[in-house]
Amino acid sequence: MLRRLFAVSAPGERGSEGALDTLDPVPGQLEDLASGWGRLEVQSPGYTMDLEPEDYDNRTLANENGTEMAMAYYDPEWVETSGNKTQLDDVQVFVIGLYSTISVLGFMGNMLILMALMKKCKQKTIVNFFIGNLAFSDILVVLFCSPFTLSALLLDQWVLGELMCRLMPFLQCTSVLVSTLILISIAIVRYQRIKYPLSKSLTVRQGCYLVGLSWAVGFVICSPLPIFYRLVEPNGNNGTNTTAPKYVCVEAWPKESYRISFSLCLLVVQYILPLICLIVSHTSV
Fold first, then answer.
1. Strands 229-235 and 19-20, how do they pair?
2. Backbone CA torsion sign across 202, 205, 209, 210
3. Which domain holds residue 147?
4. CATH number of the domain enclosing 186
5. Which residues form the G-protein coupled receptors family 1 profile domain (predicted)?
């Protein structure tokens, strides 16, 4: 029985990284087959990471001093095992069509909303102001999320450089978070107007402050992303590849607990809190 063993050097050690365990004699043909099996080594200045096939969870990026950094990484090209190129092309066509349809409809729909609100600019109500800002933030989501996510998914690499690798996730996170916070604001205003119609409602000036606060909260919560995103180079052939280097944009957190805390914070602010506010505001009126 062929044993598929890879010797991975411990943090701070050099040596037989990526070598097959040869304690048991392996026939030449099987050894060649084993050596060709998928193993991905991610290299970045001062960092190494070994990826095993069929392991799609969060990885650990360890530097030469032994400090481990939690990393989220996924390579759709690397996990392809069927070799069915026709099937892969069909999937790509479906993904491109889906992303394109959603992006075009989202952009055109929100632009129509902005144009309609601009024609009624004399009706400066707090609800119209919130809806306009919601449409604007949704346009940012379409512009910053769909194209870059689709290109990284299809190309299996990041081609826009280090700056965009750090900037795009931050803009994506901020625009989505602002859209969520504005939805909460609309739900609160709706609840106040229906439940307490005689009370003083929010003014447009107060709405401006609330929208500004939403953007500030989005910037603060998403601020760790430009710090912990980086470009790394997957190298599966131990440096023998003579083609142009291929880079991927990944998260590299100093500790796994930091990544979990950030993910939980986003879960609460982007999903749990809006869900509770919308349910309460709609069921209470």
1. unpaired
2. positive
3. 85-283
4. 1.20.1070.10
5. 109-285
Distance in angstroms (rounded) separating the CA atoms of residues 272 and 250: 26
Q: Reduce the DSSP state of residue 76 to 3 states and report it.
A: coil
Domain count, the chain: 1
Q: Where are the alpha helices (DSSP H) in the chain?
A: 28-35, 85-119, 126-144, 146-155, 161-195, 204-222, 224-228, 256-267, 273-283
177-228 pLDDT per residue, tens: 999 999 998 888 888 888 887 778 778 888 888 889 999 999 999 999 999 9
pLDDT in tens, 60-72: 444 444 455 555 4
Q: Which residues contact 233 (CB under 8 A, 6 or more apart)?
A: 42, 43, 44, 245, 246, 247, 248
Contacts of 85 (CB under 8 A, 6+ apart): none
Closest CA to 63 of 12, 8, 7, 17: 12
